Amino acid sequence: MTRTSKLRSLFLSTLLVLSVFAGTVAFAGTAAAANQPTIVSATEYSPNGNIEVAFNRSIQKENGISTFTGADITVYIDDQQYTGGDISFAGLDDDGSDGDIVFRVTPAGDLTPNQNVTVDIEPDVEAASGPDTTLDVNESVDVTSTDIEEDASSADSYDSRSQALTVYEGEKIALWANEGGNDDEEVTVKRVDGTTQLQTSTGANSRVVAYNTSGLTTGGTYSVTYQSSDGNASQRRFFNVSDLQLEASVDDKNLTDTDDLEVDVSAIRSGEVTATVYDADDDEVDAQVATLDGAPPSATINMGTLDSEDGPYRVQVVDNATGNSLNVTDIRVSESAEGAASLQSSIVTDHAGDVVQIPVSVSNTDEATVVVGSATEDNYVANLSVRDGDDDGEVVVLFNTFTAGTGTSGSASGVFSVEDSDDKLIESHENESAGLFDIARANESTLDPSDYNVEVYAGDNADPDAVTADSADDIGTVSLLEPSVDETTLHVLPNGREGDVDDLESLQENLENDNITQATRVANKDIVVAEVQASGLEGVFENELDGGADNYTDALQNQNQEITPLETSGST
């Protein structure tokens, strides 16, 4: 052999050794990977909220223990760790040596198909035998809405067409092969007198199939046949498919950033729904849960206002019990025009002591702030915020000039109120260090006849620095005139006829029928009725009525007013 041949032979021998060694390493790695457990399925089923996690082989925890406990399991619902109850294996399957574990989330009913449920097992799991290759279990769970059991002893066996379970098209149901101890059972779904829809098995180490009914014919009846793996037994169950008729709509898809997005939802069955708003990047903006009730079951869900820069938006509505969903798309939001407020009359005239009406108009907002008076010029100032509750663009503010400045209040809003019950007085402050102006209390006395400034601003301005006379949307005047007694008329009737005037209705009836005589002279013990026409009294009565008086007579009596006749010369 030449020197060249020897070198070639040595090189080939070395190459052969290295190749064999490398091949040995590859084979060992392949065997270890092949022994790593994999998850066949993870399914929530049964009325008790059982969760089965099935593997392709017998498993144990990486510490060599095959028995699992609740402490090994963490459940996440919509990416949030579930803390509302317990994880329990009681009466279920905590032994991984048979290739699956079954545990329960309690209380039952906390998991619904509209949720994203994930199971995390810690420590990691590994095959019960063979090379140790661990699996980090973090698995999404198929959550079902109802189940059809193989076991004929079940209270709801659904074993005939007349006893069929009602499900809604699109609902995910659990086909539970729970009779006997067999796994990997054959399951067939077939339309009665029709075609086969599904032919599968529960799978190795599993007893459950999560079946999505989407695409099944509404109004149809379907059978579920369970065939044991040994072929010796079969059971047949039935279900009917109905249309949930889940509908969702919005009145207006073109909103401003001050408009609330309201979603109208209805279905043929009552229950909870979840409405979720997504922006143009499909990021969740807000989610609200509502209950459909009434006939037909329905609800209006207020999703609040939306930012004009993040649209267009879509709303996904999900029926929580079935997981059925639909979307309302292409909801567009624009920036609203600036809100404005104004006084409908630049000058409002009334008498001191009366209740003054101050009509305020609003546009592109439903709130306004009103300031009456001036701390420096009038020795009186009050501020209040109001809301237009019926969207008619108007709020009529009622200003009781009798209680103003006195510290007297017949109710929580004894000075200010609103005329329309749909509107609202949000808050009011008078002559005190609160709200809009930081001022010292003015003298507590009824307002003098005078002119008082009125300023109005759009919005509920609670910031004193944001509200100045220069920033007012509109300015006007409340002009209070001197109250007066315009006319007094005396009526008399003989003693003993008190019943004719014991209430306002009787008095008015007798006056209209001329049963009471008008006179300027009265006899001793005659009954005198004084008819007075005067201004400036309205606030007195309204204050007492607000304070609980039943009528104007009671209101006058509550003021402890007394009339004492003065006998003059020449009288008898």
Largest sheet: 9 strands, mixed
Quaternary: single chain
Instruction: Tell me the helix content.
Output: under 10%
The CATH top-level class label of the largest domain: Mainly Beta
Number of strands: 38
What is the mean predicted local confidence, pLDDT?
82
Total domain count: 6
Q: What portion of the residues fall into strands of 2 or more residues?
A: 35-45%
Explain what this protein looks like in three dimensions:
The strands form eight sheets. Strands 1, 2, 3, 4, 5, 6, 7, 8 and 9 form a nine-stranded mixed β-sheet that branches. Strands 27-35-34-29-30-33 form a six-stranded mixed β-sheet, with no helix packed on it. It has a five-stranded mixed β-sheet with strand order 11-17-16-13-14, with no helix packed on it. The relative contact order is 0.07. By secondary structure, the protein is mainly beta. It has six domains: 1-26; 39-143, Immunoglobulin-like, CATH 2.60.40.1220; 146-242, Cupredoxins -  blue copper proteins (Immunoglobulin-like); 247-334, Immunoglobulin-like; 340-481, Immunoglobulin-like, CATH 2.60.40; 485-558, no CATH class. The chain is elongated and about 120 Å long. It is 10% helix and 42% strand.
List strands and helices in order, with pairings.
Blueprint: H1 3-34, E1 39-45, E2 50-55, E3 59-61, E4 73-77, E5 80-81, E6 86-93, E7 100-106, E8 117-127, E9 135-143, E10 146-149, E11 165-168, E12 172-176, E13 186-191, E14 196-201, E15 208-212, E16 221-227, E17 234-242, E18 247-250, E19 254-256, E20 262-266, E21 271-278, E22 284-292, E23 298-302, E24 313-319, E25 325-334, E26 340-343, E27 347-351, E28 355-363, E29 367-374, E30 380-387, E31 394-400, E32 416-418, E33 424-430, E34 451-458, E35 474-481, E36 485-493, H2 504-512, E37 517-518, E38 527-534, H3 538-546, H4 552-558
Parallel strand pairs: 1-9, 10-12, 11-17, 19-25, 27-35
Antiparallel strand pairs: 1-2, 2-7, 3-8, 4-5, 4-8, 6-7, 8-9, 12-15, 13-14, 13-16, 16-17, 18-20, 20-23, 21-22, 21-24, 24-25, 26-28, 28-31, 29-30, 29-34, 30-33, 31-32, 34-35, 36-37, 36-38
